[in-house]
Specification:
This protein has 90 residues and is α+β, with helices and mostly antiparallel strands. The protein has one helix and six strands. Strand 5 and strand 6 form a beta hairpin. The longest helix has 24 residues. The chain is globular, with a radius of gyration of 14 Å. 7% of the residues are buried.
Length: 90
């Protein structure tokens, strides 16, 4: 699996959610609405989710193992940081 595109949309309002991201996998499959969130220990990603009838949120799409999640998170956060740095220069 190779992530072939990462698109960052910064969130304009203040708060813990910093951006919404779409990734393309192998130029064939897209996952929208991945969130970049500022937590107590720094930035992390939250996969797209939906509120279930019991009030809990359940991921709609997510990696099966932690190494894949770490790979996706690292790539997204690197792209987010470069987007923030580029915007600061403009």
């Amino acid at each position: 699996m190779k992530i072939t595109d990462v698109r960052i949309r910064k969130v304009a309002r203040e708060g813990k959610m910093k951006a919404v991201v779409s990734i393309t996998i192998d130029e064939e499959f897209v996952v929208h609405d991945i969130k970049v969130i500022e937590g107590e220990k720094g930035l992390f990603i939250a996969m797209p989710s939906r509120k279930a009838s019991d009030g809990e949120y359940r991921d709609i799409a997510h990696p099966i193992n932690s190494s894949t999640r770490d790979c996706i998170q690292s790539l997204i956060l690197e792209k987010y940081q470069s987007t923030i740095e580029a915007a600061a220069v403009e």
